[in-house]
Amino acid sequence: MVVGAGMAGSRSCEELRAQGFEGEIVLLGAEQHLPYDRPPLSKEVLAGDLDDTALEVPWDRLDVDMRLGVAATGLRPGTVETTGGDLPYDGLVLATGARAVTLPGAAGGSVLRTVDDALLLRSRLVPGARVVVVGAGWIGAEVATTAAARGCAVTVVDAGAAPLGIALGDEVGSLTVPWYAEAGIELLLSTGVASVEPDRVELADGRALPCDVVVVGVGARPDTGWLEGSGLELDRGVAVDEHLRASWDGVVAVGDCAAWQSLRFGTRLRVEHWDDALTAPVVAATTLLGGSAVHDPVPYFWSQQLGHYLQHTGHAAGADAVVHRGTPGAPDGWTTCWLRAGRLIALLAVDRPRDVVQGRKRIAAGDPVDLTALADPATPVKSA
Question: Which residues are CB-contacts of 298 (< 8 A; sequence separation ≥ 6)?
């Protein structure tokens, strides 16, 4: 059984069949939609360029018993409790993803996580609409970008000192500040939010921001509440080893809900990125079918925001040095590299896609790098 009908769940069904499993596969999906792609929701769908992001999966050939609109509510060994009744399993893939964090007082439709969220929000982003985006992270920046392009008056509020501060650190995140003014977006940093109402956002300093639309983009949490009390080990997600094996026999986890042990980085990671949901099911299916494979990729993520193409790879925690390739904040792009003990561990490329492709390979190889060569934008990362 596969619980969760997103990219990770869909790919798990495909991989089980590709690896020779001929038994019954039941796929549970809490939404009524066929499995679909999420990255376009904050980009093409919100912009009005795309309505349907359904994954191209040959369901008729996979012979999957798909049960849409059925949510898991609890777990016992050998049984998944659902809104449609208890269902037995012999092997189980947990792929329930994550839920967007909201704020008290925020009205329905204030977050962007599902295709229904995206379509509802798109209908509200009309020229002249006053839009307040709470959170200057990845999603907040992408929503603000699209809203401004659709003619809305946009204000972004963040409690941190810089956009993307949690993901990149304040020093690097602050390099994106000028982009907001260039896009005609008001950016309020180091500004807390006291309350959210459908027609205004009350700030911690007493100011009020009247608005027609509020979008809360302050992160997501693994959708594992239904597993609380089950006895399955949880650790900021479903705790799994490098084989994606959970604490119970016959149970694996993939995608946004999985907190997997990375041998490469020496810590447990939970990666909310499309690339991980695409690749992890290969290992999960192998593990369920009795094989031995290790899931330990170099994380990768990309974002289009405020006229720039950002790509991030690796895991920067524990870095002891930072090297910039090119001039940080330069309009034609730059790259920031994080290192530990002379080895590249993470990289952010702004409008420099070749750097991230080569950098990801260097991180995977784990070889020492020449810092002087790395800092030279004319020297390919692979040659540093």
Answer: 264, 313, 314, 360, 363, 364
Distance CA 91, CA 87 (A): 12
Q: What is the pLDDT of residues 112-133, one digit of tens each?
A: 999 999 999 999 999 999 999 9
Count of CB atoms situated within 10 Å of the CB of 291: 11
Q: How far apart are CA 310 and CA 351, in angstroms?
A: 6
Element (H, E) at 149: helix 138-149
The pair of structure tokens assigned to 360 is 């990801």
* Distance from C-alpha of 242 to C-alpha of 257, rounded to nearest angstrom: 15
Structure tokens at 353: 């896609």
Residue 23 tokens, joined: 């038994």
Q: How confident is the model over 72-91, as a mean pLDDT?
A: 98
pLDDT tens, position by position, 2-25? 999 999 999 999 999 999 999 999
Place of tokens 């934008």: 377
Cα–Cα distances (Å) from 329 to 57, 113, 171, 244, in that order, read 41, 30, 11, 39
Which amino acid, residue 278? L
Q: By three-state DSSP, how is residue 126 classified? A: coil
Tokens of 67: 């049960």
For the chain, what is the radius of gyration of the CA atoms?
Answer: 22
Residue of 289, 292, 250, 242 lying closest to 267 (CA atoms): 242
d(CA 178, CA 329): 9
Given a contact cutoff of 8 angstroms between Cβ atoms, the answer to whether 223 and 255 are in contact is no
Stated pTM of the model: 0.94
| CB-based contacts of 76-80 (< 8 A; 24+ apart in sequence) | 76/230, 77/248, 80/1, 80/3, 80/28
Q: Are strands 98-100 and 220-222 parallel, antiparallel or unpaired?
A: antiparallel
Rounded Cα–Cα distance for residues 217 and 196 (Å) = 13
- Provide the 10 A C-beta neighbour count for residue 196: 21
What's at 253, amino acid-wise?
A
- CA separation, residue 60 to residues 4, 358, 369, 384 (Å): 19, 39, 49, 49
| Residue 69, pLDDT score | 97
Residue 198: its pLDDT value, please? 83
Alpha carbons 168 and 328: distance in angstroms, whole number: 13
Residues 6 or more apart whose Cβ sits within 8 Å of residue 262: 242, 268, 269, 296, 315
Token reading at 182: 């260039």
Q: What one-character DSSP code corresponds to residue 35?
A: P
